[in-house]
Fold this protein.
Amino acid sequence: MQQSRAQLIEQDGQYYLVTRLDEKPNLDHIETVSGSYSQFYVDWEIADTRKARPQQRRLFFALLSDIYTWSGMPTDFLKNLFYLQYESYTFGKQISLSDTTESSVSDANQLLDLVIDFMFEWHVPFKEGYKLLPREQEYYLFQCCRHRVCMICGNRADIHHVDVIGSGLNRTHVDHTKRHVMALCRVHHSEIEQIGSVAFSAKYHVPVDGIKLDKETLKRIGLKGKYSSD
């Protein structure tokens, strides 16, 4: 993943994001995936260039502790493993979470994403996954839905709709991209419906607003619907 400086320009009530790349992009690849290199879609986020936070370091090693409990692999080995994976992912960029680090908040977030991806891919139990940092909280909820893992206990989950679908309405005729969802197992799904979202949130100290998923993710997890973009 490459970072580059960008400038936000306002013109006639419209906002334009202008960026300069440090190296020539692969125009053939762009044209292959988008049909044109003169106009195409990109994913972007604002890089937080502040120095990586001590909370991120604590979270990183807490997650490594969870992996150690599950696998028996030493923490130092896991640390080096994910540092090397980060270096490969960023095409040679190195990272450190020490007190004297020059790595940024965004760098640390990328490292944490790699660890969280690993834990979901290999079904490593989170001891207290819902207490992740605020930035990681939505990512954790997304991965719970993506892998159909209960956000409370880690068991196989159903997709719970926060925005209730009325009785008699066919779920296959609903555009689920416009609704907020959560991943909950049968037990916790029943419990939130019995005691209500406010009591459920207070009991488990979890957000209950849910998140919205894109069409591709919804289809991948088998949630059939009538999507406006089809």
About this structure: The first strand starts at residue 6 and ends at 11. The longest helix spans residues 54-71. The mean pLDDT is 81.
